[in-house]
């Protein structure tokens, strides 16, 4: 009490008037004078930060709904309906690579094609169809195809002879895990690697997630999650929310990559997931970002018979 009296005491000996706040031409006195007390400086700073976050949220614009161009929702819906004829009950359908490429194309998302083969001669032909060397050799196993450390991916193959040699070596390395088919793919420009996913949650409906590929997401769960439909502001903040996303921007020796293309891709994925609850799972992994390009190297889509969405009261209305 003595400390508070000293703080409130006027140097000239005058009694301070109660603080007032004008409301519609009237003033309302504060009923209790005093100062908020905290157990530590950190707690006070956290409280002040929470107040500032609230003020920022209250005053910010909601943003304009993100509306990517060159999308064909009706064509995608027709293709999805055709695929669902193969699905019964609560089962899920793993969409083939070619069908996945077609579905993504309806939303303006280009997938870097990859080509399978059975013999060394077919592998050389596949490299030519991919666009020539350098190419990447990878297994078709969903887990190993993202693991360079386990031998599931070979980068920078520059010739027919090297390709044939790498095929034999990859089969030997992967033998403890089983026998898998292999594919050839044009090597994309080097850069930062990201992951985008979309799921259909039984409670809140569509959810899209973004993170940087590797340990940031697989071990540290460094993700940004959003519920479509997304505004341009939502997309802007989404790609900057993960801590590892700092790698996307010019920092020291790291050049800035095409974040604008990444934002466009996030908007397309969000729109696709919002329009089609039949997409139980969507994954773009990896997404390579360089100073000039964005390349979707791998994609996976699983379809299922959707349940009635019950989340309309909990999501942002699109109109």
List the helices and strands and how they pair.
Blueprint: H1 2-8, E1 20-23, E2 26-29, H2 41-59, H3 73-84, E3 92-94, H4 97-105, E4 114-116, H5 120-130, E5 135-139, E6 153-157, H6 160-174, E7 182-186, E8 192-201, E9 205-212, H7 215-218, E10 223-226, H8 232-238, H9 259-275, E11 279-289, E12 294-296, E13 299-304
Antiparallel strand pairs: 1-2, 3-13, 4-7, 5-6, 5-7, 8-9, 8-11, 9-10, 11-12, 11-13
Helix pairs in contact: 5-6
Name the average pLDDT.
87
Low-confidence stretches: none
| CATH fold group of the largest domain | D-amino Acid Aminotransferase, Chain A, domain 1
Taking the alpha carbons of the first and last residues, their distance comes to 55 Å
Return the string of H and E elements. HEEHHEHEHEEHEEEHEHHEEE
Supply the helix-strand structural class.
alpha+beta
Please state roughly what percent of the residues sit in beta strands, choosing from under 5%, 5-15%, 15-25%, 25-35%, 35-45% or over 45%.
15-25%
Instruction: Please outline the major beta sheet.
Output: 7 strands, antiparallel
Q: Care to count the β-strands?
A: 13
Give the count of helical stretches: 9
């Amino acid at each position: 009490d003595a400390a508070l009296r000293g703080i409130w005491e006027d140097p000239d000996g005058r009694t301070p008037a109660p603080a007032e706040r004008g409301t519609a031409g009237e003033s309302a006195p504060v009923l209790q004078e005093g100062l908020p007390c905290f157990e530590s400086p950190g707690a006070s700073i956290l409280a002040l930060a929470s107040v500032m976050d609230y003020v920022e949220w209250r005053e910010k614009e909601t943003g304009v709904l993100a509306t990517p161009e060159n999308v064909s929702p009706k064509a995608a819906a027709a293709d999805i309906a055709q695929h669902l004829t193969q699905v019964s009950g609560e089962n899920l359908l793993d969409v083939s690579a070619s069908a996945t490429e077609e579905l993504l194309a309806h939303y303006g998302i280009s997938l870097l094609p990859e080509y399978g083969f059975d013999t060394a001669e077919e592998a050389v032909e596949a490299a030519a169809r991919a666009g020539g060397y350098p190419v990447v050799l990878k297994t078709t196993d969903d887990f190993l195809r993202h693991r360079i450390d386990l031998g599931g991916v070979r980068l920078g193959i520059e010739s027919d002879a090297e390709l044939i040699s790498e095929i034999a070596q990859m089969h030997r390395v992967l033998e403890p895990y089983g026998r898998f088919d292999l594919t050839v793919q044009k090597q994309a420009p080097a850069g930062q690697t990201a992951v985008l996913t979309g799921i259909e949650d039984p409670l809140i409906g569509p959810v899209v997630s973004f993170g940087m590929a590797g340990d940031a997401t697989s071990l540290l769960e460094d993700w940004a999650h959003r519920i479509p439909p997304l505004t341009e502001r939502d997309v802007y903040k989404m790609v900057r929310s993960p801590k590892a996303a700092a790698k996307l921007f010019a920092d020291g020796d790291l050049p800035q990559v095409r974040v604008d293309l990444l934002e466009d891709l996030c908007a397309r994925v969000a729109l696709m997931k919002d329009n089609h609850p039949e997409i139980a799972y969507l994954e773009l992994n990896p997404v390579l970002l360089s100073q000039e390009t964005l390349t979707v190297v791998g994609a996976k889509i699983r379809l299922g018979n959707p349940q009635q969405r019950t989340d309309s009261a909990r999501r942002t209305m699109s109109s």
